[in-house]
Amino acid sequence: MGKEGGGGIGASGVAMSAAAAPDAVRLRGGGSLPLLGLGTMHLRGSLCEEMVANALRLGFRLVDTASMYGNERGVGAAVVASGVPRTELRVVSKLRPEDMGYDSTLKACAASCAALGVGYLDAYLVHAPGGSRKKRLETWRAMEALLAEGTCRAIGVSNYHERHIREIEAEPTLSTLPHLNQCEFNPVCQQHELRAFCAERSIAWMAHTPFGGRGAPLLRDGRLQPACRHLSASPSQVHTPPHPSPLLIPAEGFECCAGGAGLDAASRRHRDPQDPERRPHAGEPQALHPRRRCR
Q: 69 catalytic, yes or no?
């Protein structure tokens, strides 16, 4: 039996509809995701709640978290406090590699929903292709079960390469390819071959790390300055042009949608290296360098 897929898919592996364009994309399985979302990887505690609350207040409706981040409760608290109707939000979380396996995947998803205070996830992703081929396939079988029961509106993977997706594609007992693959995407990490591979299979590309990782080194890349001056834009705005797939904005570049307005002191501390109360990033400053694995 062929894997679930379909036509009407554009170059990015997502189906565009009149209702979805231009602010959202419709996934192959029928759900939709806004084109811009907030990534919460480095957020913890009260800072997490404040940053998510700020994002929701400014109009973000896609929030990405993960069990590995240790901040699902903070994200959930901010979502509840925001008063934004659940139907307007898109909440994405991810399965830790150590929780892979059939039964453990089901339990981990339930735990994430409980921590977030939601009855379902708009998308649930396998965080990384850890473990053996057998364990990856058992995990994906559980993901299909979560999709069938409605606990997850869409299922996908993160940081998967071509060979990992081919494993799912080749397994006759599985019926659904990932709806999306969340991977790094930025000016020094284009991943042309992997994006083309996903597009051919109607697997949406969801971009993370647009600013180069912790500390946002790409925002300090001098090569951006001519473009910033020409466009009268900030580095983060130059890095986030209109994009046909969902793009996650990390806290370091949060001002890109607000021009710096509307951010409270705690949010500014997160990105201002001169603020003595700012929580420093480990290993700062981080040097800019092309990643050899990205093509």
A: yes
